Every structure is written in structure tokens, then in C-alpha cells.
Amino acid sequence: MYLPAFDSQLGSGRLAEQRLTEFVDSRGWQLTGVFRDHGIVTLADAGPALEQILSMLSHGQIKGMVTLASYTISWDLEVVRHIEQRIAQLGGFVTYLYGAAGQPAGVPRQGG
User: The pTM is what?
Assistant: First the structure.
């Protein structure tokens, strides 16, 4: 599960974490960890939390990432697509609790 450092729409990271945990549980998935980045994700720098997720995917420790919406990765859609593609290349998926552009909520997305 991936969370931004702060989500102004939800007001607190704890509420976001609770919603994501309930979503993961409702799908029967196993939560491996909660990862937070406190900086800006760019094409050149995915940030430590996303890099850890990518490393875990490459080692087969996890199968995908669940987050609130694409903006929790980056406000820049090019960066979001790049991260989705990197995850897909590693055989993983990204699922957005509230959906991604052109994608229903809760449906795993395989790259951009």
C-alpha cells in the first residue's frame, strides 16, 4: 500500500491507511507494508518508498501496489504512467482505490 505523506482531501494519513487497509482486506489480499514518500516523485527520482516497492516487485516479494488515486503517486500524469510501466515491466499491478483516469475503482491496472 502506498500513501502520500499528507492527503488534504482525507485530512490525515491514518484515515487514508484505514480506507486502504479495508479495501485490501475486502479483496482477500495480504498487506505486505505501508510505504510513504515525503518528497516529490519525478521521472528521474521515484522516491525511496516507490524504489522499495519496485525492488520488492523485482524480487517477487509483492505482486502489486494499492494507493488512493494516481495523484498520490504524482500530479504529473507522465510520471504516473512511467511508474505504472515500470511496475508492469516487473510483472506487477497498480490498483487505485478511487480509480484512475478511464479506469473503474478497484481494478488492477497493468501499466499505462
Answer: 0.77
Q: Which cell goes with 109?
A: 491496472
Amino acid residing at 104:
P
Q: What is the pLDDT of residues 21-66, one digit of tens each?
A: 898 899 998 888 888 887 778 788 888 889 999 999 999 999 999 9
Amino acid at 29: W
CB 17, CB 34: distance < 8 Å: yes
Q: List C-alpha distances in Å: 82 to 9, 32, 42, 66.
A: 25, 23, 9, 16
Strand ranges (DSSP E) for the chain? 2-4, 35-37, 64-67, 93-96
